[in-house]
Structure formats: C-alpha cells, structure tokens
Amino acid sequence: MGTGTASPYGGTFLPEGPAPVALAPVAPAAVGPAPALVLLPPPVGAPVDEGLLRLPPPSSAPVDETLLAPAPPPQRSRRRQRRGVAAEGRGTRRGDVAVSLAGLGLGLCAGLGVFSVKDGLDLPGGVALAAGTIAAMVGTYLCLVLLLLVARIPWIEREVGHDRLVSLHRRVAPYAILLILAHAVLTTLAYAQVAQTGFLAEVEQLVLHTAWMMPATVAFGLVMTLGLLSYRRIRERMTYETWWVAHLYFYVAVALAFGHQLELGPMFVDEPLQRAFWIGLYVVVAVAVVGGRLVLPLRFSLRHDLRVAAVVREADGVSSVYLSGIDLDQLQARGGQFFQWRFLTRDMWWQAHPYSLSAAPNPSWLRITVKGLGDHSRGLHRLPVGTRVVAEGPYGVFHAAARHGDRVAAFAAGVGVAPVRAMLEDLPEGTAVTIVYRVPDSATAPLGGELEALVRERGWRLHYLQGPRRHHPMTVDYLRGLVPGLAESDVFVCGPDSFTERIVETVVAAGVPRTRIHHEAFAF
Fold it and tell me: Most buried among 317, 383, 415, 443, using CB within 10 Å?
C-alpha cells in the first residue's frame, strides 16, 4: 500500500494518496465477508434510483508496515464551520438552568422537612425524628433526581452528554442511599425513645403494625441492595444485562415508598399544598421517564421503521450491523453519537444496549460495529436480516461539532475505533487529523481499511500501535512524537477504561485543556 522508511513507533503513517472507492450507503444482504459490489432493494420511502453502490473497503485489508513521509497539514478552511455545543455555550447555559432548578427543588424539600419538625425538638426523640425527617425529604428528592438523570431527556442528553449524566448519577447515588439509610435508623430510634422500647422491637412494631410500612420496607431493602451492588468491585464482576435488570428495581423502590411518604410524613399530613407539591414532583419524573424511555423510542422507531439489513464480519469477534429505514436523513444524528438499541428477537427484545454509530449517518443506512464481549453483543452476530429495531437517540457529544479548532488527535483502541471512525468521517475539509490506533495486529484491525481510505483521501496521518504495551509507553514525549501540535489539538479518545484514562492523563500533562478532550462512557 506504499513504500517508505521503517516507523520508529512500530506502526504506520498513511498520508495523502490515491482517492479510494467512495463509501456508499448500502450494506450487503447476508452475514459474511463484505463483497465488493452488491445490489440491495432500497428501503420503503427511499429513492428508488440509487442503483448499484459500493461498500466500504474491508477493514481486514493487508497493511504495508512502512512509514511514508507525512504530508503537511491542510490549510485551514476559510468557510465558517459550525462549532459544537461546548464552544457555543449552549450546553453550559442549559446546564446552568437544569442545575438551578435542581438546586431550587432541593432547597424546597429540605425547607419543608425543617418546617415540619421545628416545634418538636424538645420532645422525647425529637432531635432524631427531625434529623430523620429531613434526611427522608432530601434523600427521596435525590432519588427522583437520579431517575431524571437517566430519563433520556433529549435536550439534556444532547447538550450535556450521556457520560456526564452518568458521572453525575454515580456521584449523587451514594448520598441518596446514605440519607435513606439515615432516615430509617434515626426515625426508628426516635420512635423507640418515645415508646421506651429497644431498637429491634421498634423495627418489628413499625414494619408489621404500621400502615404503608411493609411496602416502604421492601423499597428500603431494594435501595440498600442496589447500593451494595454499585460498589465498584462488585459492579465490575456483573454482566451488563444483570446490571441493567437490577436497576429496574430502583423504579419499583421509588414507587413503593410513595404511599408511606404521603400518609406518614409530618410535612404532608393535613397540608394539601405540600402534598400537591410532592405529588407534582413524582408526576414530573414519571412523565419524563415514560416519555423518554418508552413513548419517544416507540414513536422514533415507528416513524423510521428500522430493520436489520445485514450483518458483516469485520474481524475476529467483531461484526458490523447495518440498519435500513425510512427518512434516515431526518435523524439529525452525527458520526460518533450513539443510540440505545433494542433488537426485537425472542431473546433480545427486553433489553436495550448502547452502541455507537461506526459510520456517519446517511439517507440509506445506519451502522454499528460491535465486539462480542457479552451475551447481547455476541448475539448481534447472529441477527436475522429483517429484524425490527427500536432505538433511542441520538445521544452524546462525541462528534465533530464538539471540537474547538481545526486540528484533531483521535485515539482508539480495539472496537473503540467505531465512534472515532464515524466522527472522523464527519469532519469538514481543512481539518488536520492524526489517528493513533492501538491494535494487536494492523492486518486484522476492525475498520482499519476504512480508516486508511479516509487518511489517503484527506491527507491525514495514521499510526498503528502494535505489539506489547511496553513498546508504547504513552508518555508525554511519546505522544508528542506521534501527534504534531498535540497541545493545540482537540483530542477524541475511545477504548477500554484503562486506555482512555491513560490517554486523558497524558494529554492533560502535555498541555491539552480539558475542554478540548472528548470521550464518552455509556453504562453506569
């Protein structure tokens, strides 16, 4: 694929060269290696004259392990390019509004708790009861916030970013759990002091002989169990499917506790306005969850009629799933964003998983590229053509419009190349790009052939980092040697957590501002 001198980095540069075969919007019609030319009937609603279209070149194409002198960076385009939400400030303003509203609600809930118990502090158990009541109000409010953070509210997901919402969810969750635990312990202690009984005896009395306490106890047990499962070392041993199902019980817990709060909470007894406020909070959260997780995905999928068009093997254990549909040009998706995908087969219909687009969206098909790491991802390799698909999205801010300048450094490892490849395809002319791709073997790198085609077409640079990790120390000097102008670049990185964390740490040390570092995590 070229000639030149040996690379000092154990990889390959592929700069400007002959234009590749155009990437075209039709997938093959059967599972197996991608053929060079294929005829696929256009989906309903698509133009009928698209004719024969070529597929992207196979990613397993052989790679010449040589170093070609890199071409000079392209001149900056004079055309005004659309910048991302971070650069425009839209995400910041909307985020500020959301944080302000959340803070106002938190203050109201804490204030209601304080107001309801301020006159009983001098009574037996008064201090413990007051502290437990305030803890209940704040802890329950935070539980509602946790549900909103994962409610898939479109403008929040698109402007803030799914990874940031997940990160906030993780930070808030321990406080909510600890406050609910404090409420249960302090309130039980307060009633035990009033009744002059022991703690365990009072637990029995409350649970078995007090209205609404049995469902509240079940809710408490569910929340504490989820808190335990959220411990990092335990969570890392769980499959995504188990973790996803476990989180469904959090919705059950929040619902079970509702009656107990209204009937026994001192701030709601004989206080119709305060009851209306609390009911209103639950209604808002319920509408957001049902709308974001059920109504919008169903509406989206019925409108676009998504179906599996083909499954193509890219590399060992890695396959691409092509999806056809109606009016795909109206999705407003960008390369690098992801959807929550629900494939309606007998074994998969009940769960949704996040997968990034691995090619920039086009009017004829969408594509995801997945490595078989779990039961669900392995099952995608066997999807029948024609399978209906329900999708939520697009989500995420890992896309070309998020950049701040016209110089990009893209780091990918393994199947993390999928969103990187799609994001790169969306970049405008005049963007100087260096790609660093960590792979066991460049000859079988997923989507490697497509990356090489983009690099040759646009005059970019591509490094394959092969072999043992010790050959690629990922130090500041090493990355600066790979990426010219690293400190002035927007850095996009996707791969395993350890890879992402190492790259982020190193590029920050190299002088890249954190606002120019773009990476995204999908799961909790």
Answer: 415
- DSSP characters over 496-512: -HHHHHHHHHHHHHTT-
Length of the chain: 524
pLDDT bin (cut points 50, 70, 90) of residue 92 is low
Q: Please report, as a single letter, which amino acid is at residue 493.
A: V
pLDDT digits (tens, 9 = 90+) for 202-251: 998 889 888 889 999 999 999 999 888 888 778 777 777 677 778 888 99
Q: Where are the alpha helices (DSSP H) in 445-484?
A: 448-458, 476-482
The strand pair at 318-324 and 365-371 is best described as: antiparallel
Sign, CA dihedral 239-244-250-255, equals negative
DSSP-derived secondary structure for 355-391: EEBSS---SSEEEEEEE--SHHHHHHTTPPTT-BEEE
- Let me know the angle formed at the C-alpha of 360 by 357 and 361, rounded to the nearest 5 degrees: 85
- Distances in whole angstroms, Cα of residue 155 to Cα of each of 123, 149, 158, 244, 416: 48, 12, 5, 23, 25
CB atoms under 10 Å from CB of 162, counted, come to 26
Q: Are 139 and 166 in contact (CB under 8 A)?
A: no
